[in-house]
Amino acid sequence: MATRVATQDDVAAVCDFGATHIPPHYEPLIGTTAAAGQVRDWWSPRVIAQAIGDRAMILAESEDRLIGVAQVDARAQPPTLYKLYVHPAWRGRAVGRILLDAVLGSLPRIRRVLRSSTSRPTSERGGSTTARASRSTT
Q1: What is the count of structural domains for the chain?
Q2: What is the CATH number of the domain that holds 82?
Q3: C-alpha to C-alpha distance for 104 and 107, rounded to whole angstroms
Q4: Is residue 29 part of a domain?
Q5: Complete DSSP assignment for 10-79
Q6: Can you give the pLDDT at residue 105?
Q7: What's the mean pLDDT in 113-121?
Q8: Banded pLDDT at 117 (limits 50, 70, 90)
Q9: Which residues contact 1 (CB under 8 A, 6 or more apart)?
């Protein structure tokens, strides 16, 4: 498994990923119509091409198959993660964490600050680490 910055050649594959995996994820939560709206509004070729043009999309692949997508707006303050999706067959195999690490690594002016707390979110209990991103002064 490897991650890389998406290129314009990836637009169709990313759109297909969204059309395939977003509806089954969201339909039980928000209904069929709203889930279709998520794909239409956030996984269209125009939106994906714009994100890729901004170098804001990281892909995870295995054997040339798209298995995960992350999108970040590095211009926002603080940077905002818009997408972090993993193919259902690859969930539980650290793909999401690897994608998140790749996103954080793509933000050179951001440094990770681990939060110390006695109450840990569910994701931490599963082995993930909670991190806050803050602007680096260097």
Answers
A1: 1
A2: 3.40.630.30
A3: 5
A4: yes
A5: GHHHHHHHHHHHHHHHHHHHH-HHHHHHHHHHHSSHHHHHHHHHTT-EEEEEETTEEEEEEEEETTSSS-
A6: 87
A7: 42
A8: very low
A9: 60, 61, 62, 67, 95, 98
